[in-house]
């Protein structure tokens, strides 16, 4: 029966090519626009560390003075050196890492490669196991290297390819800002999106090429890059950043169970009370412990324009669907005579309805195919844009499937009203006027 | 034209009428808001920077190796000499940032020392005595910096220069009476005296976070001595820009090779800077425009399709009317009026929908309120579109001959 309906649908669609084309094109445009924007949104709001992000948290305390105090304003987005170090050394979480961004001049030993600047991350040893960073060669550094401020460095695969021709470079020396660092590890390809651990240094940018122990970066006077927020007497003094009243570091913790999260929140409160008693903190105690995805929401990591475009595309799809409903209504009612004959020959309302829905689904399938092509075109255009997320805009299998589900589902929905109306036709009336 | 028969005819096509009206309403709501967003983005694009843009380019210079701030300062001053000696170069200055760059230093400005809240935020531009002339700014009150006032500033210093210049926008905000020159203001590092006011100088970013202090800038007589990200701003003689842009990095490397000037964006003409700063706005405006045009086309096609169907369905009635004495003109007017009635209903609902969508956008995307002009514009566009779309089927209807009335009865 289905094949017969399919045959009828094809005949009917071929009979009025302009109308069919109009419906298919409208669906294709709506689906193409929606899928393009939805894919971008899907990529941008994705989980940077699937399976791990649920146990990562971003502690916040408020060390600022009372100047401009407003209880409704958010907590500082980063921590000071003193608080970061205190929290790090307290070791109250399963894992914890303190970090900040920077840029370093790399002075290759090989002749033929000019010196160049590379983005860097200055961090502590737990960074690698906590974020499940994959290693190609070697390993990260130990807590003892953090303490001794060892001159060691972990580089990415792409930098290793550039400097050492892709060979195992552990044990080699890398000169940065006139200081020699020993390479102890090379990362495998790793690019979490969004760049969640520091949203101030590019939200979807490539992650850094160089990872250096935080202490060693201070000793070697490597330049800090990223946001620095100061208050009171703070002037953002780079050389004395350890004691300045400025927040410029990110602190992440791994907490493996809800109990531990509650306990850590408690710990942060106690810590703030203690600091207040010591006179370091002035404001009423308020702490934050957002999870990774929550932190992404708070920071509005997904650009507003992208969300606006998605809404716009769905509005567009809605108009296309209303348009299709109207056209299908016209088409189905025009065939009242034919449907009347089928009813008179014994087809039930249900069978006529099924036949018309098959016809809608065919239109949906064709529209979905067209929409898919348009989405590929749209994403190609997005990738040619200079925004930092451009290279991420690709259709994955989930979105591919979603395209067809959306297209056929939407067209079936659009077909419901016209098909129902067409079923209501009294066969006798149609036969009489033939 | 009698409206009553049209209404009673429409009552027999409730679904179709409702669908066309809905489509017009949705299209109107989207098009109004899209046009409004386009206009806002274009207006944003047209904001002046205050610079002599066609003749300016910027070099981002980063040093390799460890140096003391004193050494860095000396190296930068040598570089200025090298650039100044290039043919076609009119003037050179250096700064921590420049308008439209996308990021930089902003800080609070206060009117008194013990003030808790800042009076306003402002962009901080580091400058030497050549800054104003190089950028092509207009000094409207007071004086420029003197060469001896320019001091190096390294990362250990706090920002507290004895004198500053401010933009007119900032002067007007701080001293509405227009007597800013000679007045004292407080920066993060202490009090300072305003010695000059320049007319226009845009902030380093055109993004939303910098909107509250868009044209409010403080120009401080400092050379920033850090190894990262100092910018040489070069103004060339008219027509000499391309040649100077090619020559400048070569000359700098010849003088001192221990530096990095990025191949991709180390040397940028101001035209490129502007294109980069606004590329998102321009992209959004183009996208909105495309969506509008496609939407209108689809809606027009939908109206043509549905009206054609109605005409086909009513051939017999049209024939009867023609036989009873209605002219072609009457038939044409009938369909045009019918469409106008539906469009008006749709437009009415569409206006409400447009305002509702706009109010929602205002809360979620920090847009402005939709102005009435855009609503009117949208209504006019859609009414014209509806009439245009219905014209072809209506013409076809008017050609139905009275003979049709006699057929198949």
From TrEMBL, chain A:
It comes from the Bacteria. The keyword Transmembrane helix applies. Keywords: Cell membrane, Membrane, Transmembrane, Transmembrane helix. Coiled coil: none annotated. The chain crosses the membrane at residues 311-333, 353-380, 400-420. It is found in: Cell membrane. One of its GO terms (molecular function) is transmembrane transporter activity. GO terms for cellular component: plasma membrane. Pfam families: FtsX, MacB_PCD. It is a multi-pass membrane protein. Residues 20-266 form the MacB-like periplasmic core domain. InterPro entries: ABC3_permease_C, MacB_PCD, Macrolide_Exporter_MacB. Residues 313-426 form the ABC3 transporter permease C-terminal domain. This is ABC transporter permease. It comes from Dyella solisilvae.
């Amino acid at each position: 029966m289905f094949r017969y309906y399919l045959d009828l649908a094809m005949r009917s669609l071929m009979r009025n090519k302009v109308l069919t084309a109009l419906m298919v094109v409208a669906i294709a445009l709506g689906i193409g626009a929606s899928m393009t924007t939805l894919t971008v949104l899907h990529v941008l709001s994705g989980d940077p560390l699937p399976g791990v992000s649920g146990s990562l948290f971003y502690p916040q305390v408020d060390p600022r003075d009372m100047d401009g105090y407003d209880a409704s304003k958010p907590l500082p987005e980063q921590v000071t050196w003193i608080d970061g170090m205190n929290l790090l050394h307290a070791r109250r979480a399963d894992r914890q890492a303190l970090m900040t961004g920077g840029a370093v001049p790399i002075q290759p030993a090989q002749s033929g490669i000019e010196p160049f600047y590379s983005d860097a991350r200055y961090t502590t040893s737990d960074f690698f196991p906590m974020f499940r960073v994959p290693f190609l060669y070697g390993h990260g550094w130990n807590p003892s290297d953090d303490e001794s401020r060892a001159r060691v460095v972990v580089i990415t695969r792409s930098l290793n390819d550039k400097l050492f021709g892709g060979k195992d470079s552990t044990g080699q020396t890398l000169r940065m800002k006139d200081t020699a660092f020993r390479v102890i590890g090379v990362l495998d390809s790793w690019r979490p999106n969004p760049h969640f651990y520091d949203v101030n240094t590019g939200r979807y940018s490539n992650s850094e090429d160089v990872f250096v122990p935080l202490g060693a970066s201070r000793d070697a006077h490597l330049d800090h890059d990223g946001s620095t927020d100061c208050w009171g007497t703070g002037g953002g003094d780079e050389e004395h950043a350890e004691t300045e009243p400025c927040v410029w570091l990110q602190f992440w913790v791994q907490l493996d169970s809800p109990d531990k999260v509650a306990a850590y929140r408690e710990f942060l409160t106690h810590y703030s009370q203690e600091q207040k008693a010591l006179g370091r903190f002035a404001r009423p105690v308020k702490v934050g412990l957002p999870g990774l995805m929550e932190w992404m929401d708070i920071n509005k990591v997904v650009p507003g324009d992208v969300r606006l475009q998605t809404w716009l595309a769905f509005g567009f799809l809605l108009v296309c669907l209303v348009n299709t409903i109207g056209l299908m209504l016209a088409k189905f009612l025009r065939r009242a005579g034919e449907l009347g004959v089928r009813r008179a020959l014994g087809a039930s309302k249900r069978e006529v309805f099924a036949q018309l829905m098959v016809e809608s689904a065919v239109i949906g399938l064709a529209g979905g195919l067209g929409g898919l092509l348009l989405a590929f075109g749209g994403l190609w255009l997005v990738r040619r844009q200079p925004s930092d997320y451009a290279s991420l805009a690709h259709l994955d299998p989930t979105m591919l499937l979603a395209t067809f589900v959306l297209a056929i589902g939407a067209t079936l929905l659009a077909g419901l009203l016209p098909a129902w109306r067409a079923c209501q036709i009294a066969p006798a009336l149609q036969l009489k006027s033939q | 034209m009698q409206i009553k028969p049209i209404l009673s005819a429409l009552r027999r096509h409730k679904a179709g009428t409702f669908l066309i009206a809905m489509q017009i309403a949705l299209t109107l709501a989207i098009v109004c808001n899209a046009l409004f967003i386009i206009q806002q983005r274009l207006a944003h694009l047209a904001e002046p920077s205050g610079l002599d843009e066609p003749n300016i380019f910027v070099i981002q210079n980063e040093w390799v190796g460890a140096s003391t701030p004193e050494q860095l300062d000396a190296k930068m001053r040598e570089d200025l000499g090298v650039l100044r000696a290039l043919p076609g170069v009119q003037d050179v200055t250096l700064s921590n940032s420049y308008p439209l760059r996308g990021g930089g230093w902003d800080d609070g400005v206060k009117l008194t020392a013990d003030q808790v809240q800042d009076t306003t935020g402002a962009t901080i531009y580091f400058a030497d005595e050549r800054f104003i002339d190089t950028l092509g700014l207009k000094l409207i009150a007071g004086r420029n910096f003197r060469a001896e006032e320019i001091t190096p500033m390294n990362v250990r210093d706090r920002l507290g220069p004895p004198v500053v210049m401010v933009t007119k926008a900032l002067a007007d905000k701080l001293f509405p009476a227009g007597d800013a020159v000679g007045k004292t203001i407080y920066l993060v590092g202490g009090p300072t005296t305003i010695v000059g006011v320049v007319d226009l100088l845009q902030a380093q970013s055109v993004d939303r976070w910098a909107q509250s202090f868009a044209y409010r800038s403080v120009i401080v007589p400092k050379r920033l001595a850090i190894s990262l990200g100092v910018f040489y701003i070069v103004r060339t003689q008219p027509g000499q820009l391309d040649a100077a842009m090619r020559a400048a990095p070569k000359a700098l490397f010849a003088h001192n090779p221990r530096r990095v000037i990025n191949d991709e964006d180390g040397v940028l003409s101001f035209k490129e800077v502007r294109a980069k700063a606004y590329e998102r706005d321009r992209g959004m405006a183009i996208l909105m425009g495309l969506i509008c045009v496609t939407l209108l086309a689809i809606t027009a096609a939908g109206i043509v399709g549905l009206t054609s169907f109605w005409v086909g369905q009513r051939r017999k009635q049209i024939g009867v009317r023609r036989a009873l004495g209605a002219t072609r003109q009457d038939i044409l007017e009938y369909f045009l009026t019918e469409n106008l009635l539906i469009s008006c209903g749709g437009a009415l609902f569409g206006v409400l929908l447009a305002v509702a969508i706009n109010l929602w956008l205002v809360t979620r995307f920090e847009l402005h309120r939709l102005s009435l002009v855009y609503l009117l514009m949208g209504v006019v566009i859609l009414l014209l579109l509806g009439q245009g779309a219905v014209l072809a089927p209506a013409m076809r209807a008017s050609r139905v001959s009275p003979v049709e009335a006699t057929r198949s009865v």
